[in-house]
Amino acid sequence: MPRTEAAVDLSAIRGNVALMKGATPAELMAVVKADGYGHGLVESARAAIAGGATWLGTAIVDEAVALRAAGVDVPILSWLWTPGETETVRRALLADVDLSASSLWQLDAVLAAARETGRTARVHLKIDTGLSRNGSYVTDWPDLVAAAAKAEAAGEATVVGVWSHFAYADEPGHPTIGKQIDAFRDALDVAKRAGVEPQLRHLANSAATLTLPEAHFDLVRPGIAVYGLSPIAGNDFGLVPAMTLRAAAASVKRVRAGEGVSYGHEYTTNRETTLVLVPLGYADGVPRHAGNTGPVFVNGTRFTIAGRVCMDQVVVDVGDLAVAPGDSVVLFGSGANGEPTAQDWADAVGTIHYEIVTRIGPRVQRTYTA
Predict the structure, then answer these.
(1) What pLDDT is stored for residue 1 in this prediction?
(2) Closest CA to 140 of 176, 106, 166
(3) Strand pairing partners for 124?
């Protein structure tokens, strides 16, 4: 096996998308931002399309353009860009990438690029329904949709979508959920009165795709669920995690009781034991604060990292277990064979599984099974 490996099961991605698509009449946008949540941008996109995705979503335009360069031709929406990215906006239009606009300055920038390139811009207007992140504030919304209607009438733009994003969909029953759906419907009414009737209305993230059919509208936008990680605690919905992070044991040695292990000797052996060196560290995305807490799986048995996480490596005390250099050490996987999961890691270090998978760095080789 490679020294370090993030092994991605593309059949899991296909199956996860098919599972969600089979439960809704809406179109499905697979969100492949952040290099496919660490799983690989192009590979994840192709697997999602094979599973039934008809749209793709990326936060930044560069990833959308990279998908186009790889031959991916389904509609793509990108939504995070700044005033200094005028050339990026032009590249998006030339690559037939849809852009989100949350403000008049963004819409103006898109329309300027449309005039320069001779393209009709495809835009999705975003309304802030309560997340207070990106999106037009409710008092600014009438001006934005009026300007968009004017641009559409002039042939400079097509309003493909109106959209928003949930704050609490991962907590079913939270009172903000209904309020955001109502606010979204109100925004659609305002847009309609201004003459904007989008092809697509979209609000549902992974959690809403799995639990809120009333929020599906015309398109759902699952992200983390595409990769088999559930956004709802305690319910996996039949999703299958796609990534396994593992490495070949780089060193195995027998040591005496009382030996300090790794920097600062925050772990000390309490008996004669075997120490296994694993060539994954915080430069590869292993959380540094996982020292003495991060779970690992060695030859069928679970252990915990011994001592601090170093830049390039960690140590595992495996007691009397038989281990040889080159044996596989799994940090997380699907859990089907008893190995820790990304959720186990998130629980161990006090974060979310989104962060665990997306932080795996480029030094870790991605491998793919169909």
Answers:
(1) 87
(2) 106
(3) 100, 161
Same structural domain, 132 and 46: yes
The pLDDT value recorded for residue 66 is 98
* Helical ranges in the chain per DSSP H: 10-21, 33-37, 41-50, 61-69, 86-94, 104-117, 141-153, 175-193, 206-211, 342-349, 353-358
Identify the H or E element spanning 126: strand 121-126
**pLDDT computed for residue 338 by the predictor:** 97
Residues 54 and 122 in one domain: yes
Terminal-residue alpha carbon distance, the chain: 18
- Predicted pLDDT of residue 152: 97
Q: Name the nearest CA neighbour of 332 among 286, 289, 365.
A: 286
213 shares its domain with 257 = no
CA–CA separation, 187 and 164 (whole Å): 10
Domain that residue 273 falls in: 243-369
By annotation, the residues acting in catalysis are: 33, 263
Phi, psi of 327 (to 5 degrees): -65, 150
Residue 173 has what pLDDT?
96
Cβ(239)–Cβ(231) below 8 Å: no
Render the burial of 14-40: b for 16+ CB within 10 Å, e for the rest.
Answer: bbbbbbbbeebebbbbbbbbbbbbbbb
Q: What is the CATH number of the domain that holds 361?
A: 2.40.37.10
Residues 65 and 202 both lie in one domain: yes
CATH number at residue 53: 3.20.20.10
278 & 336 share domain: yes
User: Which residue's entry shows tokens 């899991």?
Assistant: 12
Question: 89 and 61 in contact (C-beta within 8 Å)?
Answer: yes
Alpha-carbon gap, residue 206 to 223, rounded angstroms? 6
Residues 221 and 102 in one domain: yes
- For the chain, residues with pLDDT lower than 70 are none
Residue 96: what pLDDT? 98
Number of structural domains in the chain: 2
